[in-house]
Amino acid sequence: MSLCQQALLLLSCAVLTLCYPQTCYTKVLSMGREITERAAELKRNPDTERCTAHLSDLYIDVHNACIMPRMRRYIALLERLPDWHCMRNRTVQKQSATARQLHHIMAYRCHGELHFSTDDCAALEHKPRAST
């Protein structure tokens, strides 16, 4: 095969890889990271820190069986914030909607694809250790 054909083959494989749709599992992982980061930001943001200070830290681990009830509680707390201005905050609304969507995806769409390898509920309130 000529060098030009090899380059074309490599380029077309790279394009196909980039266009390949996410699996249910990768979607859940990316949404979990997004929710975890936004939960920390809500607690640091001056506009929302006062009304989200009572929320415990949230670390989404899709391999932990305790994540489903934990997410239901978190969504309920977000939807019942005592301060009207916080409930109307776009970041809070987006966090609530994303968490609801992730819960739905995990419960109904990816139900057979997910495997819970732990049931350590306390681990969902502590920052995970960095992987090596």
Q: What does this protein look like?
A:
- This is Cytokine-like protein 1.
- Residues 1-19 form the signal peptide.
- One of its GO terms (biological process) is positive regulation of transcription by RNA polymerase II.
- Keywords: Signal.
- With 132 residues, the chain is an all-alpha fold.
- It has one domain (22-125).
- The chain is built from six helices and no strands.
- The protein has helices at residues 3-19, 24-44, 49-52, 67-79, 84-87, 90-109.
- The longest helix is centred in the first third of the chain and has 21 residues, at 24-44.
- The model has no long low-confidence stretch (mean pLDDT 82).
Give the SSE map.
Elements: H1 3-19, H2 24-44, H3 49-52, H4 67-79, H5 84-87, H6 90-109
Which structural traits does this protein have?
132 residues, mainly alpha, 60% helix, 0% strand, signal, Cytokine-like protein 1, CYTL1
Biggest sheet, open or closed, and with what strands and sense?
A: none
Which structural class is indicated by helix and strand composition? mainly alpha
Helical proportion, percent range: 55-70%
How many extended strands?
A: 0
Residue-averaged pLDDT: 82
State the domain count.
1
Give the topology string: H per helix, E per strand: HHHHHH
Tally of alpha and pi helices = 6
The 3D shape can be described as: elongated
Q: What gyration radius follows from the Cα positions, in whole Å?
A: 19 Å
Low-confidence residue ranges: none
| Estimated share of beta-strand residues | under 5%
The separation of the N and C termini measures 40 Å
Keywords: Signal
InterPro entries: CYTL1
Organism: Aldrovandia affinis
Signal peptide: 1-19
